[in-house]
Amino acid sequence: MCDRYSLTAELAELTEGFRIDAVRVPYFMRYNISPTQQIPIIERVGEERCLNLHRWGLMPYWGKSSINADVDTLGDRRYLRNMLAKKRCVVPCSGFYIWKTEGRTKSVWRVVHRTRPLFAMPAIYDVWRDSERNESPMCTVITRDSGYALGTDRPLPVVMDESAIELWLNPQETRAEVLQSALRSLEDEDFRLYPVTPSVENKTWETPDCIEEVHPSMALIKV
Known about the structure:
single chain, about 220 residues, hypothetical protein yedk fold, 6-stranded antiparallel beta sheet, about 15% helix, about 35% strand, globular, lyase, DNA-binding, DNA damage, covalent protein-dna linkage, hydrolase
């Protein structure tokens, strides 16, 4: 499960890197983004790429928030197929966090791309309407089986190249098989990981030290 990441780019870097035409929300750097929070997303509105905010985590009628969707099962359920066909966005990211467990301890590590200070994770979204018909868009990030890559057995987010982003944000493309085939993540060797403060475990901890490298012994958390 991908349940924590950071976005530490300046706005100018973000808009240039993802060719964003319109910024529709306030933007500020984030160091420890967690589920149920409002997160920056990029979506196609008409002919423009727009920066908006969505709640991270769907609120389906059958249960708790769904923050991730597996790339291999996107076509298996009707509600996922509907979002895949018509409601797609990308989540800009500077790095995501993983947890490694060894014996009775676990440690927090940050994963970054070796050459790209910014990359994109695919997402699908829905719109929640409350009893007063107020609309709240919410999204789920698409993940893949880690295969124990990067030293974790948790699912990892799919990371897209530019051609995949272009296809993903193209509203004319609605074929599930084509969209799923575009979600081939960048190679694991393109990423590096380093230990960070265990304070990342605390969802309310939101300071620049979240992304600072520490000695491995300083990243340990007792379980």
